[in-house]
């Protein structure tokens, strides 16, 4: 039989273990592979998705919503079309899009990660140069 003290200690240990094992939607980081790119149409924008707890790339995420616009430079209405491209590296998701003028672009992504019940959203900023 457990004493009061060890039961409390056990409960504390269990809740600690549970919180370490269950990653939340905030435990993922999106990062532009090339934060600075040449402006132009039909460019390839690549985004790396990493699990912050393990530091490992997250492969097999399902990207279901994307948007590229110039919100960082006050042109949120300037939206570019985005089309997925095949991934060449686990955890790196590539897209074809247009960066028609020099300046900063924001890509917003909503993804489903295997084993993560919450939708993971994030964004990256890339600067297009002449
Ligand atoms: Cu613009």
Topology at a glance:
Elements: H1 4-21, E1 28-32, E2 36-38, E3 40-51, E4 62-70, E5 75-80, E6 82-89, E7 92-99, E8 103-112, E9 120-129
Parallel strand pairs: 2-9
Antiparallel strand pairs: 1-3, 3-7, 4-5, 4-8, 6-7, 8-9
This protein binds copper (II) ion.
Shape: globular
Bound molecules: copper (II) ion
The CATH topology: Immunoglobulin-like
Q: Terminal Cα separation, in Å?
A: 73 Å
What is the topology, as strand order, of the major beta sheet?
2-9-8-4-5
How are helices and strands ordered from N to C?
HEEEEEEEEE
Uncertain segments are: 13-20
Largest sheet at a glance? 5 strands, mixed
* Whole-number count of domains: 1
Instruction: Tell me the β content.
Output: over 45%
Mean pLDDT: 89
Instruction: Quickly count the helices.
Output: 1
- What is the CATH first-level class name? Mainly Beta
The chain-level structural class is mainly beta
CA radius of gyration: 20 Å
CATH superfamily: Immunoglobulins
Helicity level, as a percent range?
10-25%
Number of E strands: 9
CATH second-level architecture:
Sandwich
The oligomerization state is single chain
